[in-house]
Amino acid sequence: MTATLSMMENRRPRIDQDGTQAEDHGVDRNGVKLMKKFKTDALKDFTEQQVRYTPANRRLDQLKRAEILLNEVETQAERDASKEYPYQYVCFRITEHRPEIHPTLLVGCGDLKHDLGLFLAELARSCPL
Predict the structure, then answer these.
(1) Could you please report the per-residue DSSP string of the chain?
(2) pLDDT tens track for 25-68
(3) With contact defined as beta carbons under 8 Å apart, do 40 and 107 qualify?
(4) CA torsion sign, 106 to 104 to 126 to 76?
């Protein structure tokens, strides 16, 4: 079974400069390496989905909306770092569509700031110049 798993992943572990195995940062189905590890799996999946399936012109619109949301989250974090955001609300603010999945998932302010930063980086990297 181990051989089957390694064949399925078809990648070697990355080694950091100090010789230790690096943390797995993930690769999407198109082989695009994600920059850092997301704190919320649902937002990682959401990001991969947007990069893979959303047309470039819509991704540019989503970048703008995600930047606005990130600014709002950062401002809110200064007032109340314990605030949580519904996953569906986050998706709606970025895509203008409310998904049916994860209806009860709440994302903490700090995790959302982190993951929105990764979302912005991945989406920007996937857009044509």
Answers:
(1) -HHHHHHHH--PPPB-TTSSBPPP--B-TT-PBPSS--S-HHHHHHHHHHHHHS-HHHHHHHHHHHHHHHHHHHHHHHH-TT-EEEHHHHHHHHHS---SS-TT-EEEHHHHHHHHHHHHHHHHHHS--
(2) 455 445 555 456 999 999 999 999 999 999 999 999 999 999 99
(3) yes
(4) negative
Residue 16 CA from chain centroid, whole number: 23
Instruction: Assess contact for 108 and 86: CB atoms under 8 A.
Output: no
Greater pLDDT, 21 or 54: 54
pTM of structure: 0.71
Weakest-pLDDT range from 4-8, 70-74, 82-86, 93-97: 4-8
| Residue-range domain boundaries for the chain | 24-126
Lookup: tokens for 67: 């930047």
Would you say how long the chain is, in residues? 129
CA distance 34 to 14: 13
